[in-house]
Structure formats: C-alpha cells, structure tokens
Design goal:
The complex is a heterodimer. Chain A is mainly α. Chain A contains six helices and no strands. Chain B is mainly alpha-helical. Chain B starts with a helix and ends with a helix. The mean pLDDT of chain B is about 80. The chains are: A mainly alpha, B mainly alpha.
Chain lengths: ~160, ~325
Amino acid sequence: MGQLAAFIILSVVTLVSAVVVVASQNIVRSALSLIPTLLGIAGVYILLQAEYVAGIQVLIYAGAITVLILFVIMLTEHGTGARFRQVNEQVLPGTIAVAVLAALLMAVFFGTAWPRAAGTLPQYTATSIGTTFLTSAILVFIVTSFVLLVALMGAIVIARRER
Amino acid sequence: MVNWPLEIVRAVLLTAAVFTFMAVVAAMFGVLLERKVGGWIQSRLGPKHVGPQGLLQTVADTIKLLQKEHIEPRAADRAIFNTAPLVVAVAGLMSWVVIPFGTLGDRVLVVRDLNIGVVFFAAMASLTVVGILAGGFASNNKYALLGGLRSASQMISYELPLAMALIAVAMEAGTLSTVGIVEAQAGWFGSFAFRQFPAFVIFLIAATAEVNRVPFDLPEAESELVAGYFSEYTGMRFALFQLGEYGEMFAMAAMATTLFLGGWKGPVLPGVVWFLLKMYLIVFLLMWVRWTYPRYRLDQLLNLSWKVLLPAGLVWILITGYRVTF
C-alpha cells in the first residue's frame, strides 16, 4: 500500500517535471526541471532497493550533470538565457515518434515473460556492483573508463587551442 | 514489511528535531561563535551588548530578519527565485540524516544508518549548488549571476577531491556506512585522521571550498560581487540561505569528525559530548582559517583543485588500495 502510494507520488513528480523539461519556453527552467525528474527516478531506484544506484544518480545526475548543463546555458545564452525563447517547431513529428516508441516499448513489455519468482537481493549492493565491475563486466568498465579519459583529454586539447 | 504511517510520523518528528538543532545550535550559535572568534582573532570584542556577553545577538538578528519585508525584483523569475533558498536549506539539512551523534546505551544516535551513508552525504552536498545557481540566475542581477556561476565551477571542481577523500576512507574502513566507519576506528593511532592523513587534509580543504568559506568564498566575495548569489534576497529567504550555509558547514565538520576523528568515541565523557567537542574543534579550525587567510583568485582556486588536490587524491587512493590489499 505504502509502496504503491510512494510509487504513484514519485511517478507524478517525475512525469510532470519531465513534461516541463520538454515544454517550457525558458531554457533555464527546462534545465532546472531536470532535477525533480532525476530525483524522482532516484526515488524509484530506492523503492527497488537499489540504494547505491539511487545515491549515485543524485550525486552524478542531479548534482553534477544538471549543474554542468545550467553552467553551459548561462555562459552561452547572453548571460542568463532568460530572454532566449525556445520554441519547438516539430511538435507533430515529435509526438508521432514518441507514440511509436511508446507502442513498441509496451509491445515488448507485455510480450516478455517476466520471471515472477522472488529473487534474492544482495545484502550490500555497493559490494556486489563493485565485484561485478571487476569480474564479469570488466571489459565494459574499462572501455567506459577509456571513453571518459579520451573525452577529458579532448576537452583539454580544445580548451588549450582556443587560448 | 515497513510500517508506513509510523515511518512518516517518525520522519516528520526527526526532521523537526534536526531542523531545530541545526537552526539553533548550528546557525544561531554558529554565527555568534563566528563573530566572537573573528573578534578575538582581530583583537576586537565582537558582539557584546545584547544579553550577557552578546549571547542573544543572533536571536535579536533573527527576530529582525523575520520582520523584514520580502522583496522580489520586478524582472526576477519568481518561481525559481522563491524556491532556491529552500533547496539550499533542505540540502544542508538532509546531510545530517547520516551523521551519528553518539550512543545511548547500545543504540547509536543517528537518524538513519544508511548503508550508502557516505555517498548520500556527497549527493546532498552536491545538491546545494543547484539552489545557489538557481538563486543567482533568478535574481536577474549580474553580480548574483556571477556569484552563481563561480559557485558552480568551484563546487563541481571541489566535489571530486571531496569524493576522493571519502573513497579512500571507505576503502580502508571497508564500508560506506557512517556508523561502520566510526566503528572501524579506535584510539589515537586507529583514527583515520592518523591512518588517512592525506585524505583528511584533502577533505578539509575541499569541504571549506564546498561550503563557500574564506579563502574559497568567491561566490559571495563581498568586495567584488556585493553579496554574490544572495544579493537580491531579503528577510527570511536571506536567512534561509544563511541557515543552509551554516548547516552545511556544521555538517561538513560533523562528517570530518565521523570520518577521521573517530566520531563519538572517546574516554570517560559520554559519546555525544565527545562528538560535539570534536565537531566544534573542526568548526573552530574553519573559522580560524576564515579570519586568517585572504581570498583566492578564481584561477588559483581551480588550479589548486585540478592540479594539486585531484592528483594527490588519486595517488592516495592507489596507496590506500595497496595497503588494504597487501
């Protein structure tokens, strides 16, 4: 009961702010609405007892990525970006694309035979995530690290050339 | 199965308790202590006239702030302008959830001993910057915007060394839970201030930068930016910013106590007393630094983070990893 209520509240928060992200005419408001969206998703992770993922979601997405987006907006859009009106001229194609995507996703969700038996949660998810990263998923982990490292070096190279 | 109504009642009561503690002990007493310590360092008296030895000065100031008119600049973005102080205050308050204050019998006094305590703390610390940036933007004032931008670049830069210090400690303790980290320390040489000394130094520097205090107070540098991101705020909303800032500062001090100084542990005296003693020791250190050092320039500030603290943190994590494994 409580879980259902929590899920509904979190969904409403996530969806309403997600709509604001897409529909707002003020680009800073769009960026700021990302934060409740991401926090709502973090709440869903907590409901799924993936508390480590939720913590990282708040730390990285709500606390760092959004701030980075805001930072970039404020540096580029003539100071504040408040006078910059953003208008979506592709509402119709966008709606059609979203509807098709939603239909596909729902077809996949309803077509999949989900395992119904209750699985066992690891006692301490941080440890099991770490173990997975360093054993069975090590290739993904290292490749991601390299991508990030290259991106970091690329940013430095670009910044130095401009100076 | 979780008893939801009971949990919600508990959460509300604990929120009220922590908020009162933060507002009274941290913010009010903190401001008074700040002014007294500042006066002492600069050979002045500090506040002296309201109450015995000026003890009631902050109370008087708060009552004054409560009565002030709330002014919204005409061109401000109202919704964002009014929510920004709340974000800062709530994020400052939420950091306290994972801090263990002491022990009562066998129970540890902590709102919630989350098994991701340290990650949670870092996440909440990183949320404050959203409020600061939003407040700076919504004020529609160039000084406020500059303050907000400086704060964003500063906090993003210093979150990394802070996280490095937290990671090193968590590696040595083998847990992310704050209570677990306190229990992993024992005695002088067992405390992480000794075993993790570089992490301790990195944490203190990064924490000072995270809470925007001198020598890292560029977001509100009063000689350049009026008051930075809260230039346009009046009355209680200004007070909320102050509350969030002092709450965050005390939370950082409490976290330093928990992570490095062995938390509530200590001989003879009860745990809560030890915890408060150690916390105020760190708070005093932060104030001492504030009234002693001049402000950094922005490029110096960023260089310190990216070229000194971050590599040092990475090297220390490597060393810690070696020590833990072999």
